[in-house]
Amino acid sequence: MCRQPTPRSKKEVNVYSMKRVAANDSVAIKERGKKHYQERHYKDAFEYWTKAAELGNVDAIYLLSLLYRDGRGVEKNEGKEWYQLEEAAIAGHVGARFTLAHNEKTRCGRTDRAVKHLIIATNLGCDYSMRALQQCHENGEVDDDKFTAALHAHQAAVDAMNSPQREEQANFERSLEEWFCADK
User: Fold this and answer.
1) Residue 103 · residue 85 · CB < 8 Å
2) In 10 A of CB 40, how many CB atoms?
3) How far apart are CA 77 and CA 122, in angstroms?
4) Which among 75, 92, 109, 119 is most buried, taking Cβ atoms within 10 Å?
């Protein structure tokens, strides 16, 4: 990958992307699925995300849950939605954990299970989960000890994720996104 010249046009980006898809690059396959999803080709998105999920891409597993939830490209299926969410959460996807927490509380009325999901996601540094857990604490659904422990774990996770190299990479990715999104 690093030996390839930087693509100069969207066509070159597409060619390079398809080479990565042909090489079974799970990230490229997931991104190809996102492209189809944005173009409202949901069946194609499903096919790409299924392949990426089979290759172990956790984001693709989570994205499949959304297709099952909304019935886009597949028949709406709550059981498969939950299965994909649980698989993604087990693999460490904090968005899936947050969604499971939301579903447990709002769809099933199981606040205790929702809190457990929120604590796990908070411990992984998820800000949304931290805010939701704080709301649960204010509502009396989480005791002080659990909330304080989660707060400290959240801060430790956030601190561990901060580094000059990560900031430099984030700036680089923002500049690439601006460049690729500019009409040429």
Assistant:
1) yes
2) 10
3) 28
4) 119
In the numeric block, which tokens belong to residue 108?
């099933």
43 sits in which H/E element: helix 42-54
Of 26, 8, 6, 4, the residue nearest 182 (C-alpha): 8
- Name the nearest CA neighbour of 120 among 103, 135, 98: 98
Specify burial of residue 121 (Cβ count, 10 A radius: 0-12, 13-18, 19+): buried
Nearest to 78 by CA among 100, 56, 55: 100
Closest by Cα among 33, 24, 78 to 56: 24
Q: Which stretches within 55-126 are classed as H helix?
A: 58-70, 78-90, 94-106, 111-123
Question: How big is the chain, counted in residues?
Answer: 184
Give the pTM. Answer: 0.79
Q: Which helix (H) or strand (E) holds 171?
A: helix 164-181
